[in-house]
Request: fold
Amino acid sequence: MVDPSILPTFVAVYEAGSISAASRELYVSQPTVTARISRLEEEFGAPLFFRQARGVTPTVEAERLLVVAKEIARLLAKTQVMNEPDRLGPLHLAASTTIASHVLPPLLAGFRERFPDVPIRLTVGNTREVIQAIREGEVPLGLVEGSARAPRVRLTPFLDDAIVPVASQAARNDTRYENRQDLKSATILWRESGSGTRAVITRALKEAGIRTRPATQDIVLGSTSAILSAAAAGLGVAFLSRHTLASVEGSRLKALPGLSLTIPRTFHWAVPAGGLSGTAGRFHAYAQREAR
Reply:
């Protein structure tokens, strides 16, 4: 008989594509993940993964098991929530501005629905500020837009994103951004130093040969909402997250595909070196499931 408690590990390995990636996501050692999968294969009576140098490939049996495993994992999580409603303390998170404004709200709403009595506090800052708060123990869990090195803080992937160049729909007819050459003389709207978004954009503009830092005509603003409003007012070209643009109804902005400067990136969890536990650990697990 298959032990249902092992199934979340199976799902993590299947979706991550490797034992090492799954161990990082689950915050357990690779030998532990390997042992769990071996035990599941023994109980299931068939191999579930082909081991390769660069990861694992699911077998036909794994494909069949995945659907059932996800449903069982969901039911187990729901049962756990019902059985332990009083054990969770306050949830304190720190997040970069784009994530705090456009990614976290529905996740927090879903978590509140399951844990209506858990107090929630969200601290908003740029990537540098969030990582510092995690490092100094002020907050147990964070989400950042950048992926810079962070001593004593563990960064793990959460959600894919892309930064898109946009300008006002009402821009003058003679203001055209049809290629990268046009961008060299344009006003670019930048985030402040320390912003993860700024770091990603700086790298992309440098590689494109446009510029390495704000020019005299450029404007530096301290939040995503300020960038959004400035771009809509026609002050210049902005680079905004797809998650931001998707949440703005009746947007007065237009994408600029001719620049060929859509920048892929990944939002990351910022976790203390000692790992997660309690309410922060529960929210992390919930958010990971919802984001898949």
User: Anything to note?
Assistant: Residues 91-158+267-291 form a domain with the D-Maltodextrin-Binding Protein; domain 2 fold (CATH 3.40.190.10). The chain has three domains: 4-83, 91-158+267-291, 160-264. The first helix runs from residue 7 to 16.
